[in-house]
Design a protein that fits this description.
By secondary structure, this protein is an alpha/beta fold. Helices cover about 35% and strands about 20% of the residues. The longest helix has 14 residues.
Amino acid sequence: MTSDLAWLKGHAFLMCVGPGFGPQDVAPAVSGALETGLGGIVLSPSHVELAGDTEGLTVAVVVGFPTGRHHSLVKAAEARLAVQQGATEVWLSPDLAVADSNRLLAEFVAVREAVPHPVTLAVILESSARTPESVAAVAGAARLAGVDRLVTAGGWLGKGTGASVSTGLPLTVTGAETLEDVITALESGADRVGVSSTAAVDSPPH
């Protein structure tokens, strides 16, 4: 059971992009993620330089977040700067009002070119706020642009569910608050889970 729990923790990312999360919270969050054995942490762009020594912890940063209504060139620049400051993964927020495949593709390509491999590029679906057709359009454009994975939700517009999302790309399901949530997300097809706190993987299932 200990090895199983360690495996689960290694597939969990601590979400630190909520409205109440400030600069003073970055260092304690990084320390908590490291002590718990999590796989990564998700930060806002202005907080990346505050992360310090992450000791191999994957540092993901959200760009264009939370509305996605930033110019594509601004998103690309934001992503590039975050990587220069130490992020190894970028989570891109597209505009929820955009479902046109060509517009989505153009933006995804712009950001992909700004942060080429080995940086991991993910696109945030906000699946609870999109129609199935819109989710399919985002996923299709992401695959064509060379995006590495998709994320169900960023946390500002509600939780994203993973069970109904079939995208053809590796999937991170966010919104897990308990160990049961983490297990359910992984069983639904996700290979990583965004957790609201380290307690989500420290508390035994009920």
